[in-house]
Amino acid sequence: MKFFAVLALCVVGAIAAPLTADEASLVQSSWKQVSHNEVDILAAVFAAYPDIQAKFPQFAGKDLASVKDTAAFATHATRIVSFLSEVIALSGNPSNAAAVGALVSKLGSDHHARGVSAAQFGEFRTALVSYLSNHVSWGDNVAAAWNKALDNTMSIAVAHL
Ligand code: HEM
């Protein structure tokens, strides 16, 4: 019995802790402050990490300034931001955990097919957090909530790359 209790603790310990309702609401309210800045967010990611831009056939080898105002750029920026908005809207409710897992696993396997690396997902995360810290009301509690949310989801996505 004791053995199973310890085993259960180990298994639970290996699974990321879900966001509390308070953490989810910090992530949701800060995301609301920037989620209309789709183009700006993707441009910040590409500016910080040109190797990410280079993976897009339609943007590779082009000046960021020359593609930033195109319809193709807006379309892709909206896809990424909408994906994040969908996952963020589901967070904070344990009954949505399976849906989040399915979305994020699929994101990973779709990007595996494109040759995207775990290191590039890490770059994306760094650029996103940097953008957030400069554009939303930021503090230790908001940073901690975002880090937990990104630890939980990025680990699933990267496992499917
Ligand atoms: C980190 C490096 C990444 C690279 C190099 C990358 C690259 C790409 C490429 C080349 C496409 C196809 C674009 C097209 O066919 O027009 C794509 C699609 C997409 N990406 Fe990414 N991506 C990255 C990270 C992410 C992340 C972190 C997210 C979500 C937060 C994301 C969300 C999407 C979505 C929603 C699509 C459109 C749906 C699909 O085709 O799968 N991407 N990505």
Structural description of this entry:
The chain is mainly α. It has helices at 2-14, 21-32, 38-48, 50-53, 64-67, 71-90, 97-112, 118-135, 140-159. Helix 2 (21-32) crosses helix 9, helix 3 crosses helix 6 (71-90) and helix 8 (118-135) runs antiparallel to helix 9 (140-159). Protoporphyrin IX containing FE (HEM) is lined by residues 52, 55-56, 76, 79-80, 83-84, 107, 110-111, 114, 116, 120-121, 124.
Rg over CA atoms, rounded to whole Å, is 17 Å
Low-confidence stretches: 1-14
Strand content: under 5%
Which structural category fits the helices and strands?
mainly alpha
CATH fold naming: Globin-like
What keyword list fits this structure?
161 residues; mainly alpha; Globin-like; 73% helix; binds protoporphyrin IX containing FE
